[in-house]
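Before relying on records like the one below, remember that each one covers exactly one chain. Contacts with other chains, cofactors or solvent are not represented anywhere in the record.
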Amino acid sequence: MTDVWQGNSLNLDASRVIDRNIYVDPKIYAAERDQIFAHTWQWVAHESELPELGDYVTATVAGRPVVVARGDDGALNAFFNTCTHRGAMLAVHPRGNSGGSFVCMYHAWCFDTEGKLMSAPMDEAYGDRLEKACYDIPKVRMETFAGNIFISLAADVAPLETFLGQAGPYIEMFTGKHEAIGRVRWTLDGNWKLWHENFRDNYHPMYAHVAIGVNYQGVTIQGTNHDIAQGHSLLAFPAQGNGDPNRIGSVIRKVTGKELGAPPPPGPTVAANADDNRNLILAVFPNLDFQHSPVGINHNLLQIVRPLGVDKAMVEIVVFGEKGESAEVRQARLETSLDGQTAAGKISGDDTEAVRRCAGGFGAVREVRWSNMDRGQSPGDDGAKNDEYSLRAFYVAYKQYMGQALEGVG
């Protein structure tokens, strides 16, 4: 089948361009929801966030509301977050504790932590026609990996470990011996792919992020960029030169009008293997990113972007800490993440604004249809830090999932 992006006005191979219509076309968004989000594994939580009976988290995947809950046997269960009586959601908070059962606020139908109907008030009015088993909430497929809870709406999706492929060992390193210590979320004005692309893009940091751009001045840019198959990718780079606090402090004062804060307390000892001594950004298809930094307190976090519409999305960040670490180090992790990786942070604040500006620029999609994705000319799946092997990895998988839904667009 001919790639529908062939014959673009940039005269590039179809694998090296992006049709901007995919960011603005409601039909494309609807197809993504049904063909990508309903047929992949979606991250919902880390097991450490649900330690007790009745603890739960909620998520919306491909438009379907889902709840994951800890049962009295210690097992985790995933089921649709809807009462089988009249449809009201049972759990309305991102996280909480149900007390061991979910009671619908509308008519007080009660379900256990597996989604089974336990009782309906005044059920004598139904006579013998209320067969409770008919009203158990359908379960959702769920698997865990390195403490991370994933769900899938598709019965035929590959096992989670197979789906993760080469990304698996990195996820194990990031979260396998850690626990989630904090979450923050915000709404993004732009298409979900713009946010996920941003964390596959190592070309922008020296220009978009004023607070760290100084580290790239007068040094040799180092790092690598990898397509690791199945739509996943990896960015790996050392702490970039020029970390002079006086120089960085002057930039912080210029940008924010505030002084550079005191350095965080020393973090846990960094392990000797090479991966632990590099900054790593792992992108998991279609919408999940893990970040590892050996600098300062050696932090790990993940970001997930969930589409709310063709031009709006929800970004959520989860910060991880090492089990048994001091309260001082844990607080430093949270403050460091808030300072950099949130909507108002020195890093993600810039990314949020870049997405907003791209979304605005796409108003001219009829006149300017194509985006260049051609950085990196070496054959194979690996390139330099600023190359785009990682972005191309995403779009190989994207086109496979979307299939004919991309035809006739534009």
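Residues 167-404 form a domain with the Naphthalene 1,2-dioxygenase Alpha Subunit; Chain A, domain 1 fold (CATH 3.90.380.10).
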